[in-house]
Each structure stands twice: as structure tokens, then as C-alpha cells.
């Protein structure tokens, strides 16, 4: 029987303390209102914010949205791609966490995504997203291998840095007969300067955090961006 990544996703990557830190970070920037959780996955961030916001979750994977709805039945789900946000409404907060920006594999596409997201912000709204710092690309120049059992399935997960600042993730899940089901996807690591140039072109006000510490600290693993439209 095929294994859905959505079914095992939380067991592979969920960290309750980290999810709560992200939720607290959002609440530090904006307290309530309407919220769009882009690339929402199984809804771990939405779950921690839904008592404060009217939340909608968007994801390209129908199986992820099924898990999202089980966790957050009171929240709206939207099946959609980050490449086309034109039909959405407007929101007080838009979130894009889980390094989801890094799944967008060209700067032109990144600019389109950021521009579209900002167009759906209310006047005093805030767009919050994260991405890998360049140290992540350096970290996986030697292949990373994780092995274990997730929900009864033996698995292998490898991460390897490829040319052009690309990180490849490869999963192999094994059934009772030892047959492997494989999944592979890429992320691209962008320089902070390239993203800041796009945000400048889009006429935004930006605060940058490094692993939740205000300011630019390249030795950390993630940058977090707090973006608002226009100049004061």
C-alpha cells in the first residue's frame, strides 16, 4: 500500500517546541485578525494560532489538507499552489514557514510569490516567512543520512548539497517485504542580499530575525522576515 508523506510528515519532522515558538513569534508581530497559512502542511502552526485568528490553510497536496482538517476542523482549507495566489482574499497576516520559500527554485518565481502575497495583505497587515541561511547549504556538502522507523515503516532520509545552491532531499520508505517507495524533492538556498533586493523593489518595510534573534546572524540556520507594505 503506498505511503503518503502527509501521513508520516509530523512523525518525521514535527517539533512541538519549535511549532510553539513560531506561533509565539507570530503573536509578537500581530495579535488577531484574519490569517492565511501558506504551504500549511498538516496545520501544526495553525493549530496554535486558531484561538486568536480566523485562519485559512493553503497547500498543494490534498493529503496534507486532509490531515490539516483533522487537526483544525474549524479552519478553512484551500487547495492551491504558491505559484498562483491571485484568487485569494485579503488577510491581516500571511505566513510562509517551514522553509517553504526554498522550494521555489528561481528568483523570478520567488519575486512573483512575494509580490502576490503582499498584494493580499490588508493595509496594516504583516507577511511573515522564513528561509534557510547559506550555512545550510554548506552543512550538507557531505551527505546527511537519517534512518529509523516511522509509524511502523523503516525509512532512510538523505540530504545532499548539489550545484547551484540546491539541496536534494531523498526519502525511501520500506514495506513488510522490503520494497522501497521513494520520494525526492529539491530546495534552493538563496542569499539574504537577493531576497532583500526583491523586497526593496516591492517597496516594503522589513525586520529580519535569525533563529528568532533580531538582526542578521549568518551562523544561524534560518532567517525570519517580518514584512509590511510601503513606507511610513
Identify the notable features of this structure and list them briefly.
alpha/beta, 232 residues, 8-stranded mixed β-sheet, 4-stranded antiparallel β-sheet, 38% strand, 29% helix, 2 domains, 12 strands, Rossmann fold, globular, N-terminal domain of TfIIb
Q: Helices and strands in order, then pairings?
A:
Blueprint: H1 5-13, H2 16-29, E1 33-38, H3 44-49, E2 53-59, H4 62-71, E3 76-79, E4 91-96, H5 107-119, E5 121-132, H6 135-139, E6 144-150, E7 153-162, E8 166-174, E9 180-188, H7 192-201, E10 204-210, E11 213-214, E12 222-229
Parallel strand pairs: 1-2, 1-4, 2-3, 4-5
Antiparallel strand pairs: 5-12, 6-7, 7-8, 8-9, 10-11, 10-12
Helix pairs in contact: 5-7
Amino acid at each position: 500500500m503506498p505511503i503518503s508523506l502527509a501521513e508520516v510528515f509530523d512523525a518525521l519532522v514535527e517539533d512541538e517546541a519549535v511549532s510553539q515558538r513560531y506561533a509565539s513569534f507570530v503573536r509578537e508581530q500581530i495579535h488577531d485578525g484574519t490569517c492565511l497559512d501558506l504551504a500549511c502542511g498538516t496545520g501544526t502552526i495553525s493549530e496554535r494560532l486558531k484561538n486568536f485568528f480566523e485562519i485559512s490553510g493553503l497547500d498543494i497536496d490534498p493529503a496534507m489538507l486532509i490531515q490539516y482538517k483533522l487537526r483544525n476542523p474549524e479552519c478553512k482549507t484551500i487547495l492551491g499552489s504558491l505559484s498562483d495566489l491571485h484568487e485569494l482574499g485579503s488577510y491581516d497576516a500571511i505566513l510562509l514557514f517551514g522553509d517553504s520559500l526554498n522550494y521555489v527554485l528561481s528568483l523570478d518565481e520567488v519575486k512573483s510569490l512575494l509580490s502576490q502575497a503582499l498584494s493580499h495583505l490588508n493595509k496594516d497587515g504583516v507577511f511573515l516567512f522564513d528561509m534557510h541561511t547559506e550555512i545550510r547549504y554548506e552543512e550538507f556538502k557531505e551527505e546527511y543520512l537519517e534512518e529509523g522507523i516511522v509509524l511502523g515503516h523503516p525509512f532512510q532520509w538523505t540530504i545532499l548539497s548539489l550545484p547551484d545552491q540546491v539541496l536534494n532531499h531523498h526519502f525511501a520508505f520500506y514495506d513488510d517485504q522490503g520494497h522501497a517507495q521513494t520520494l525526492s524533492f529539491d530546495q534552493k538556498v538563496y542569499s539574504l542580499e537577493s531576497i532583500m533586493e526583491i523586497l526593496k523593489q516591492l517597496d516594503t518595510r522589513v525586520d529580519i530575525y535569525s533563529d528568532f534573534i533580531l538582526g542578521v546572524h549568518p551562523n544561524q540556520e534560518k532567517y525570519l522576515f517580518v514584512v509590511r507594505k510601503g513606507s511610513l
